[in-house]
Specification:
Elements (H helix, E strand, L loop, with lengths): L3 E5 L5 E7 L2 H13 L5 E7 L6 H15 L3 E8 L3 E8 L4 E8 L5 H20 L6 E2 L19 H10 L17 E11 L6 E12 L2 E10 L2 E4 L3 E19 L4 E20 L10 E16 L6 E12 L4 E2 L12 E2 L3 E12 L4
Parallel strand pairs: 2-3, 2-4
Antiparallel strand pairs: 1-3, 4-5, 5-6, 6-7, 8-9, 8-18, 9-10, 10-12, 11-12, 12-13, 13-14, 14-15, 15-18, 16-17
Helix pairs in contact: 1-3
Length: 357
């Protein structure tokens, strides 16, 4: 009898079992280990032939889950270059999830990546107590005391497996999941409503993530906006430098959201160009004001896990925002510009970084 298992574990983490029936399954398992390295779970590799009938494979999964104390059991049916079918059994909730990745995902490598992302999302949902798949009946048992042993591989397959992986042993190998801070950067555009006329800015962020938490710095560089009246042209630019921190959470297979709190300093520059000889313009000024405000972003991963796009909305609460007016001019409604204390904005960003969600 040949029993081959590799356990990637951390004490007290939730246990999962992945059944491996061949080298294609191992290639997908390697991707899954990379995608789930930041989750608090263990994955135990069980090498054995996978039954071609779903009911038989599901019955075996229930037995393995009971024997290993696993939260769920995962296995695959892989037709290289054609189709990957993913099966996940949740024995506690009596649920079975079946998902597919087809040729439309791209190359064979892209198909493996897409399948590993599906498995990651399913395992994370189970960690969060969310239901996956559909409810199924318990599979029939052959006896009340069914022996839980891994069936042997056929002699030819066992020999080939030994030649392919001569260093793999039946003993468990332990590895700590990575919980390090991971960097990311994002770049995009921002539309700000600081008064009746919107202004525009470039938004650059540098940050770190660890699990669901994110933090970093945010720099916005505003474009000039020009306000005109019969007396002068007023050019205003709005810049900001601040820090942010918050949490990310999953919305779907490729969708996630982030809720952050931003705080920092805002710089308003003002330059005046007279349009009448009667006006004597004052010198250009720079005003610094503190701000704080919330932001929510919805993030989408289109393909590679290191690239995301996001659309966000937020509002900056500015302390004593500046006002621009003329001295000695009365009865002129257009001669005063007061910026709003609450300045909403919309952002569109591209985010680059290591896969964390």
């Amino acid at each position: 009898m040949l029993l081959g298992t590799t356990s990637i574990a951390r004490a007290s983490a939730t246990a999962f079992v992945v059944r491996v029936g061949g080298p294609s399954d191992d290639a997908l398992l390697t991707r899954i280990l990379g995608q789930t390295s930041d989750l608090h779970l263990t994955i135990e590799r069980v090498e054995e032939p996978v039954e071609p009938q779903v009911e038989a494979a599901r019955a075996r999964a229930f037995v393995l889950a009971h024997a290993k104390g696993a939260r769920a059991v995962v296995w695959f049916t892989i037709v290289p270059g054609e189709d990957i079918t993913i099966f996940v059994v949740d024995p506690e909730a009596h649920r079975l999830l079946v998902d597919h990745v087809g040729r439309d995902a791209g190359s064979a490598s892209a198909m493996l990546e897409a399948a590993s992302l599906i498995v990651r999302d399913v395992l994370r949902a189970l960690l969060e107590g969310e239901p996956v798949g559909r409810v199924v009946e318990d599979p029939p048992r052959t006896s009340d005391h069914e022996e839980v042993l891994t069936p042997p591989l056929p002699p030819r397959e066992a020999s080939a497996s030994t030649q392919r992986r001569p260093s793999r042993k039946a003993a468990a190998v332990t590895r700590e999941p990575s919980r390090a801070w991971r960097p990311f950067t994002s770049f995009g555009a921002r539309v700000v409503f600081s008064h009746q006329t919107p202004s525009y800015a470039l938004d650059q962020r540098l940050g770190l993530t660890r699990g669901p938490f994110e933090a970093g710095i945010d720099v916005t560089l505003g474009f000039s906006e020009e306000e005109r009246d019969p007396y002068a042209s007023l050019r205003i630019r709005r810049h900001a430098l601040g820090a942010f921190g918050g949490w990310r959470f999953r919305l779907g297979d490729r969708l996630s959201a982030a809720v952050d709190l931003h705080a920092g300093a805002m710089l308003f520059t003002r330059a005046t160009r007279p349009r009448t000889p009667a006006l004597l313009p004052s010198a250009s000024t720079v005003a610094v004001h503190a701000f704080v405000g919330p932001e929510m972003r919805v993030r989408w991963t289109p393909g590679p896990s290191w690239l995301r796009t996001s659309l966000g909305v937020g509002a900056d609460v500015v302390v004593s925002p500046p006002e621009f007016t003329y001295e000695g001019v009365t009865n002129c409604a257009s001669c005063q510009l007061a910026l709003w204390p609450v300045q909403p904005y919309v952002t569109a960003l591209l985010e680059f970084g290591l896969p964390t969600w």
